[in-house]
């Protein structure tokens, strides 16, 4: 029997809810749940490595997504902008990419993060899905928009039919960065006015990955009302989330996962 979700879980925006699995709490986005199987894990699943390790935990995740263990798809994340079709990846975790797209209900896309943004997207009309790993490098390079383009190019998705949700990641409250990141975003073609909104000044320089990715998704054509941000900072909630900024190389990973459903 699943254990009860502790009452001390972080509070959420109304578009997000906590659900329960045998290992503990899973975060879900309500509008996304209407069209895709998905979620974001917490420390309670205790994933401390990639799909090649922690087999029991990955098996539990497969069961939660109603796929076989072989149906979990993961890539070697490199902080880039490549988005690949899950069918081309299979069990090749060595494939370098930071985004996955799929129309296959037997495959569950996963991204692993410990401060970076785990972005999940679904097409409400077609049922196809995407999973994205967006750290500062990927965000500067435009990985969110690349995922939208991937769905459009491979499946004919219309941006207006997409719903996107940003899971737990380091927030602007805690993500202190150097001035060189401002230059990196500008060199990638982002307008200075936008970059100025994404970087907060006052208590040093802090990067707002939530706003940067949200606005990039809106620029790609997703309606603002269909871009949902959980607002959960991994650095602020050590009891629930891993944080590389806080724990360094000892940090485990939370997993964002999503699976297409039969239409």
Please explain how this structure is put together.
The structure is a single chain. The chain has 263 residues and is of the alpha+beta class. It has a single domain (17-259), classed as 4-Layer Sandwich (CNF1/YfiH-like putative cysteine hydrolases). Helices cover 26% and strands 24% of the residues. It has nine helices and 14 strands. β1 (16-21) and β2 form a beta hairpin. It is globular, with a radius of gyration of 17 Å. The relative contact order is 0.19. The model has no long low-confidence stretch (mean pLDDT 93).
Question: Layout of SSEs?
Answer:
Elements: E1 16-21, E2 24-29, H1 30-33, E3 37-40, H2 55-64, E4 72-73, E5 83-85, H3 86-89, E6 99-102, E7 108-113, E8 117-123, E9 129-134, H4 136-141, H5 143-155, E10 162-166, H6 179-187, H7 192-198, E11 199-201, E12 205-207, H8 209-219, E13 227-229, H9 244-247, E14 254-259
The secondary-structure class comes to alpha+beta
Helical residue percent band: 25-40%
Shape: globular
Number of strands: 14
Low-confidence regions: none
First-residue to last-residue Cα separation:
31 Å
Give the percentage of residues in beta strands: 15-25%
Q: What is the average per-residue confidence, as pLDDT, rounded to a whole number?
A: 93
